[in-house]
Amino acid sequence: MRLLLKEHSALEIKRPNVTESASVDQENDWFVSIPSKPLHFLRDSRGKEVYPYAINRKDEETYALHADYYVGIDWLIEDKKFIHVEPKINKVVNDAFKELLDLDEDDQSTISVKEDKVEKEVGEIGSDSTPNLREVDFLKMLLEVYSGQVEEKYLKDIVTIYWDENRIPIEQHQDQLTPFLIVQFLQLLKKIVRKGLKKSYYKVQENLNGRVKGKILIGQQLKQNVFKNRLTSTICEYQVFGIDSVENRFLKKVLRFVSSYVDNHPVLFNSNQQEVKNLISYCRPAFELVGEEVETHQLKHLKANPFFKEYKEAIKIGQYILKRFAYNITHTTEQKVETPPFWIDMPRLFELYVYHQLLKANPEHRGDLHYQFSTYGNALDLLITYDEQPIVVDMKYKLHYKHGHIHEDIRQVSGYARLKRVRKQCGFCDKDDSNINCLIIYPKVDNADLVDYSLENIGELLKVDEDKENQYSITPYYKVFKLGIALPMIE
Question: Residue 166 is part of which domain span?
Answer without folding.
Answer: 147-199+244-342
